Amino acid sequence: MKPARIIIDQFQLPVREWCWRENWExxxxxxxxLLCKFAHLxxxxxxxxxxxxxxxxxxxxxxxxxxxxEDLRDATVFNIQAIAKNLRMxxxxxxxxxxxxxxxxxxxxxSDHLRWCPLCALTGFHSPLFQIEIITACPAHGNVLRSxxxxxxxxxxxRFQRETFITPFACPHCxxxxxxxxxxxxxxxxxxxxQDKAILENLTDLMRFENDILPIKIELNRKRKAAGLGEFVIxxxxxxxxxxxxxxxxxxxxxxxSSEETEAGQMQLNFEHVDEIRRGSKREEPNPYRKPKKSSGxxxxxxxxxxxxxxxxxxxLLEIYTLYSAIRRHVRRHIVCSHRxxxxxxxxxxxxxxxxxxxxxxxxxxxxxxRWRMYWEGCGxxxxxxxxxxxxxxxxxxxLAQAAPICPADWSHEGETWVIKHLFSFSCMxxxxxxxxxxxxxxxxxxxxxxxxxxxxxxxxxWAISGKDTDKFPISIFRQVYTVDxxxxxxxxxxxxxxxxxxxxxxxxxIKR
Length: 513
Fold this sequence. Notes:
By secondary structure, the protein is α+β, with helices and mostly antiparallel strands. The protein contains 18 helices and eight strands. 33% of the residues are buried.
């Protein structure tokens, strides 16, 4: 009997361990990315993964095993410890792969369909932050995030479903492969490039900080409102900017606003790198015998000729467009004034839609000015910039819809307009400065890639507004001030002579449709 026991012991199987490659884990993966990689390595279906990773205490494991259909943003039904053990990862990294665990306040601003960067997906990487709707492009590669399959144009549900894991990192409808590196046996490591990883880590830290300070802002606003100091608004974190800059600015503003609660009036800011602009209240006592003026975007005939398209604009858009026209005249007359001929010839030469085109470089001042106008006026054809507007200025419309501040309800219309105009002016000049820097770089490389998404927002300032729009508590704008850049000085000092214009003309002659 003893030898028999030995023979039986020889054929006993070891405890089963699932396959996993540590060089496939980046520390920034989403739950979709981790589960897809695990399913591919072990050839598992969604039901088999559910047996391993669905928590037995969730009360729904039997139903999920029968028909898996769970939101991959939410970790409620998943066993974090089981996933961490089988993927040999830290449990905190696994928990952060679920968006609602990483950013608890993101439920109202995230997508339930997969949004991915094509270059990141090639190597089997997907970040949970890509599901946030305000992030429109990959911060590492600059590519616009996709939300539909390139072949069948259908959306991919960001859910734990059978169809998703039949072919991981592929469209469940047409099987279009979006992560070919997973299926390439020659690829051993799927680690991110160190520079790309640093950018994504910065984005993660930035979004987590903004998520953490949300309750603080709400509580401070509540206290300020109860004390009669008025509410305040802080700009959202820009996912293209360094996290430390935003943290420093928010800390300065919150400290300044918190100290107001113990003072009779508003304190004067003396923080370094923070500027303050105040608006004196101009409210008048209402005259009961005077009829109120109606605010309308429609102008009278006595106001002069106006293209028909602008008659349909509302009052806010017309006001901002008027301000934009003034800024445009200032730039043309005082910054790019010596290159007007270059601008005219370049604008007339490009009669076709330029978005996505690659051309030889020409006068960088003309390039910066044209691309800046194309961005704000929503025009893809430079030659159309020299006529009356025929459509909405989509760049301005987009800024009003996405970047314009939502002021407190008790502010006057004039006060709100004052704030919006100031912030638009900052943004408008910041984009011109960035387009100028890009144009100077293109002149050195001798080529131009016409891509409006090339803007990184590196010259834009964080801002905050506070006050009650009264004499005692006037509206204040806090703006983060950065080191003065010499880009505009370089543009204004750029040599314009006969040789420069001849080189500009010869470059344009080589650019054809």
